[in-house]
Amino acid sequence: MLFAFVAFADTLMASGNLKVNILPLTSEKAVVAISNNTASNFQISIENENGETIYYKETTAESKDFRKVFDFSNLTSGEYTLTATIDGATTERAFKVERNKIAVGKEKTAIEPYFSFKDGTLAVSYLNFSEENLLLSFYDNNGLVYSKEIGDKFNVTEGFDLSKLANGNYTVVLSTGSRNYDYQVNVE
Question: Are the C-beta atoms of residues 135 and 55 closer than 8 Å to each other?
Fold first, then answer.
């Protein structure tokens, strides 16, 4: 379990300072500024309120910063989400394009959970920044085997003895209010 904590802490430190800012310059243009404490490759996307991707970019060189002026004059009025992802961390910032302004919402951060399976024990660690209710579910080829409501606590560390399960492949799903994280386990 110590190894799981150390590996999770390394991920947190590598990606723990991902920041996304949208700074309106005019009623139609804004600077998107993304920064991290370590040099990384960024994946950047903008989606409309229907979930359609209207912009996507993967940087090719590692950097601590990404800055670009966006012209939103061709966007229809509505709500959009800018997402930046690096090294297992995702930060989102919602913004609204209206007739004469760009309104920027709060930043939301998510770091992928850490899963480890060794000697019949599954370890799960997750930092629940959004404080959403969490559900952990186990599935085999026939469907749901077990589920546990974890609640909305911030620091999640759970361990499960899977040695009594029948041999086979299982999918473990950590569900938040807005995302699902899957992990494959082969019990032998």
Answer: no
**The CA-based dihedral angle spanning residues 62, 68, 35, 59, taken in that order and rounded to the nearest 10 degrees:** -20
Supply the pLDDT for residue 99. Answer: 82
Q: Which domains does the chain have, with CATH numbers?
A: 2-110 (2.60.40.1930), 113-187 (2.60.40.3080)
AA letter at 23? L
Q: Note the pLDDT of residue 16.
A: 55
- Cα separation, 149 vs 157, in Å, equals 13
Q: What is the DSSP letter of 28?
A: S
CA distance 32 to 82: 9
Residue whose C-alpha is closest to residue 146's, from 125, 128, 166: 166
How far apart are the C-alpha atoms of 85 and 70, rounded to whole Å? 19
Q: What mean pLDDT is reported for the chain?
A: 88
**Of 117, 119, 118, 115, residue with least CA distance to 136:** 115
Tens-digit pLDDT profile for residues 79-115 = 999 999 998 889 999 999 988 889 999 888 888 999 9
Positive or negative torsion for Cα 150, 155, 156, 157? negative
188 burial (CB, 10 Å; 0-12 / 13-18 / 19+) is: exposed
